[in-house]
Amino acid sequence: MCRRCKPELRQNFQSASGICICHWLQIRRTRSREGRAMWLPPALLLLSLSGCFSIQGPESVRAPEQGSLTVQCHYKQGWETYIKWWCRGVRWDTCKILIETRGSEQGEKSDRVSIKDNQKDRTFTVTMEGLRRDDADVYWCGIERRGPDLGTQVKVIVDPEGAASTTASSPTNSNMAVFIGSHKR
Predict the structure, then answer these.
(1) What pLDDT shows up at residue 84?
(2) Keyword Ribonucleoprotein on this protein (predicted)?
(3) pLDDT, tens digit (0-9, with 9 covering 90-100), for 49-60
């Protein structure tokens, strides 16, 4: 299972485009029956990376307390009819899915969160309304698939009421690191 880059490795391995190379290194490493580290052959490594770079979103977004924010997550061709989801939590493998699509373009709403997939543009949009300070956290845009899901991390910052803020989701802040792993649902 692939996890986030360790903070101490992030600067060393994160390229200018935001691709988190340490994930490639982490998946290659596995354990033998005796508990010794071993490396996967390159062909098997490539198979385990299928779907990499298939989803991207902003690195962070910010909005004022009581306001709303919108996050657009982009995906590559071939993922249009898959279920898209939005989950909360620093750890990829235990984040809580707040809302998901049904594999169609029909919008879904649950409490203060909505999600809509535009399959033509290959973008799904998540909106959070009535923001509270405790909504500030790490979230994930994801695609459910057979095997491990795909996802990319988005940091949500909620400014105190009355503070000036803007929502940042420009392509220059794009997070291209792709995380492949399982979720506890």
Answers:
(1) 98
(2) no
(3) 444 569 999 999
What is this structure's pTM?
0.67
Token digits of residue 3: 């996890």
- Give the pLDDT band of residue 93 (cuts 50, 70, 90): confident
Instruction: Please tell me the distance from the alpha carbon of residue 130 to that of residue 128, in angstroms, as a whole number.
Output: 7
Q: Write the CATH number of the domain with boundaries 53-181.
A: 2.60.40.10
Task: Say if residues 20 and 14 touch (Cβ distance below 8 Å).
Answer: yes
Domain boundaries, the chain: 53-181
Pair 64, 183: CB distance under 8 Å:
no
Q: 162-184 pLDDT, tens per residue?
A: 765 544 443 334 554 444 444 54
The amino acid that residue 73 corresponds to is C
Q: Rounded distance, CA 111 to CA 131, Å?
A: 12
Q: How far is CA 24 from CA 4, 41, 47, 72, 85, in A?
A: 11, 13, 12, 25, 24
Selection from 179, 14, 13 nearest residue 93 by Cα: 179
So what's the pLDDT on residue 10?
37
Upper half-sphere CA count for residue 143 (Cβ side, 13 Å): 30
**Beta partners for residue 143, in sequence order:** 84, 150
